[in-house]
TrEMBL record:
<protein>
    <submittedName>
        <fullName>TRAP transporter solute receptor, TAXI family</fullName>
    </submittedName>
</protein>
<dbReference type="InterPro" id="IPR011852">
    <property type="entry name" value="TRAP_TAXI"/>
</dbReference>
<keyword id="KW-1133">Transmembrane helix</keyword>
<feature type="transmembrane region" description="Helical">
    <location>
        <begin position="29"/>
        <end position="51"/>
    </location>
</feature>
<keyword id="KW-0675">Receptor</keyword>
<keyword id="KW-0472">Membrane</keyword>
<dbReference type="Pfam" id="PF16868">
    <property type="entry name" value="NMT1_3"/>
</dbReference>
<keyword id="KW-0812">Transmembrane</keyword>
């Protein structure tokens, strides 16, 4: 056999072995998002896309699932059906600590990966509803069971002048609410989501709506004993017919995982994302102002060791 042919054969065999090794250690990571009309779905999609760009280096293939939201994602991670999930900070807090709707079923293996954008609590109402008091007796979607907005709505009504029993409660998915609103089948809906969500923008473009404020005194009561809530403001001019800022409260969107996911997998996901952070920030307006410091705020469970390792390498945590 000629020397050149032998050399080419050797290169081919080495390449084949390397490819085989890469296939052998390929790891699939499934990320739970939310409704396709919300912010979680494109955000999770952007994370997966960035991770997958480097899959030849780390062997990780990320996929995204549209789900029922934060509580669904936590429950699915606890069962091993999801590897990671986007979860509101309040839901993550209750799940990790076994309080509220997670009383008696603590998910102690939850771990934080990183924090994302703030998610203001939107009260989207038809134009006849001007104030929170106007919701009394109206048909209001507070979110499907297991969703983050339903959890927030239930907490909110514990500190408001009237309770859930004073409205006609609907339990629709976030993706269903805009059509029900447009058809007049509901008068308002709650949605905890990043500002500018298509879920709200679509109905606001075709119908006159109001974004109803949550008064400061109500927010102050809500925040007592609930460290995951912050005061917030929805800027004016984002949604049609909503020209002035609207006061409300917010949670943080967080990426969670569990202790079942290996350290090196979480490390590589985090490393890959931060190395391409500028690209990630451009994928959705709510991500524009992210910084490494902000992405370590509002975490509702201990850091996963894989994430912590990367943050220590960068000097972001001690």
């Amino acid at each position: 056999m000629k020397r050149g042919t032998t050399f080419l054969l050797a290169i081919f065999l080495i390449s084949s072995l390397q490819a085989g090794e890469a296939l052998a250690k390929r790891i699939y990571v499934t990320i739970g998002a939310g409704a396709v009309t919300g912010v979680y779905f494109p955000t999770a999609g952007a994370i997966a896309k960035i991770v997958n760009k480097k899959r030849k280096q780390h062997g990780i293939r990320a996929t995204v699932e549209s789900t029922g939201g934060s509580t669904y994602n936590v429950n699915s991670m606890s069962l091993g059906e999801l590897d990671m999930g986007l979860v509101q900070s309040d839901v993550g807090y209750r799940a990790y600590n076994g309080v509220g709707d997670f009383k008696g079923r603590k998910v102690g293996k939850l771990r934080s990966v990183l924090s994302l954008h703030a998610e203001p609590f939107h009260i989207v109402a038809n134009e006849s509803i001007k104030t929170f008091a106007d919701l009394k007796g109206k048909r209001v979607n507070i979110g499907n069971p297991g969703s983050g907005q339903r959890s927030s709505a239930e907490a909110l009504f514990t500190v408001t002048p009237f309770g859930l029993g004073d409205i006609i409660v609907e339990g629709l998915k976030a993706s269903e609410a805009p059509d029900f609103m447009a058809d007049g089948r509901i008068d308002a809906y709650f949605y905890t989501v990043g500002v500018g969500s298509a879920n709200i923008m679509d109905v606001a473009t075709s119908h006159k709506i109001n974004i109803v404020a949550v008064d400061d005194d109500v927010v102050a009561k809500l925040k007592k004993g609930r460290p995951y809530y912050v005061s917030a403001e929805i800027p004016g001019g984002v949604y049609p017919n909503v020209d002035k800022p609207v006061k409300t409260f917010a949670v943080k969107a967080t990426l969670l995982t569990t202790t079942d996911v290996p350290d090196d997998v979480v490390y590589n996901v985090v490393k890959t994302l931060f190395e391409d952070l500028e690209t990630f920030k451009k994928t959705h307006p709510v991500l524009n102002n992210l910084t490494p410091a902000k992405m370590l705020e509002g975490l509702s469970a201990p850091l996963h060791p894989g994430a912590e390792k990367y943050y220590k390498e960068r000097g972001w945590v001690k």
